[in-house]
Amino acid sequence: MNYKAYILRLFFRIVLIVGLILGLIYTIEIDNNTYAVILGIGLIYLLVNTYTFTKRRFTAMDDFFEAVKYRDFSRWFPEDRGPKDIRFLYSGFNEINRTIKEINSQNQAQYVYLQKILEMVDIGIIAYNLETGDVLWSNDSFGDILDVPSFKNIRFVENRKPDLFNTIFETYHREPNSISIALQNESIKILISDTVFQVDDDAFKLIVIQNIDNTLNKNESESWKKLLSVMTHEIMNSIAPISSLADTLQQNLQLALEQPEESQLELEDVNSGIKTIKNRSEGLLKFAKTYRSLSKVTQLNLQRVRVSELFNNIQLLMEPSIKAKDIDIDFKISGPKLELDIDTHLIEQVLINLLLNAVDAVKGKENAKIKVEASQNSNRDIVIKVFDNGSGIPQDILENIFVPFFTSKTTGSGIGLSLCKQIMLLHKGRIMVKSIEDEGTVFSLVF
């Protein structure tokens, strides 16, 4: 039975009550006591029945709201007994309880799932009430990183480690910030960031910390291994033949000194050997100089530059030599007002390097073309692209082209693209590449 049937039955009772009242008044006026008594009894019965009919519905609703007030959604209302309208009401209450229990169950499952994930990560997370200091939630990694036991209020840390408390809880780190903190007899470097959020009338602070010492040490160790491997390989390639040749020359000289009549010293051979040693030594010095050029770029001289001016400088410098090789080159800017905050000399070096690579890529190709474009993307980043329709870069070496000293050229040093990447990183930008063999390559500088 729905609420319309309930209203209809209530309306019917009200009509009967009004009718009995009018009948009672009429019988009293005509002095018909018998009918007056009968109508009075009927009126009393109907009033009691209407009161009971209305009260039981409100009583059922009151019971349900009481259960909701105390979050008691496990209560079950009987649907198989009592008046039909009440059974229908109980059925609705039970359906609401089932839905809320399902929602609570899903929320609980999601909470447990999220909690387990946050407990498994090695990043420390804590949320606490800004006014009271009571901890809303914290994972084990937070205490492990700061070397403190589990606590329910941040004043625990303040009482035991006031300096650490000021650094972590009192100082705001809106942007991720790398700081060093002292723990017992050692100092560790952590990455920290925080944010404040509001729940009803309470303000909470969420702090995220990560111990980056291990990561830095691991990356540093891997970098040193790669660097030592490269340098050892290059140095051994130069030292081994130098040592062998020097040993041979020493033996010949020794024999010539000890047995001058029997062992004739060929000055031409000595000269050739010394020349070879000289060439290999110069190669080793060139390698050291190349490595130094990669590591010396550490700071920028930034200035606001129009992209059109940057392109004009590059065009004046590179266009004559490129066109002399029968290669078409085109410069295009989507907007004349595009500006960059850059170190002009370094970015020019990057573009020159990319253009020289493009020239090598299109060498010997008919209708060789190079195109340099500047535009602004949907993220308002300024992008400079260098296109060529050359031979492309094989996919198996594409991911290694920015690795220092890696090169596929017989005369290359493997330093150019590495230097380009470092310069872009110093500008807080990035360099990307897309290439299809036998179709061409595009390098993108994103500022």
UniProtKB/TrEMBL annotation:
GO terms for molecular function: phosphorelay sensor kinase activity. Residues 230-447 form the Histidine kinase domain. It comes from the Bacteria. The chain crosses the membrane at residues 7-28, 34-53. InterPro entries: HATPase_C_sf (IPR036890), HATPase_dom (IPR003594), His_kinase_dom (IPR005467), Sig_transdc_His_kin-like_C (IPR004358). SMART domains: HATPase_c. Keywords: Kinase, Membrane, Phosphoprotein, Transferase, Transmembrane, Transmembrane helix. Its EC number is 2.7.13.3. It catalyses: ATP + protein L-histidine = ADP + protein N-phospho-L-histidine. CDD domains: HATPase. This is histidine kinase.
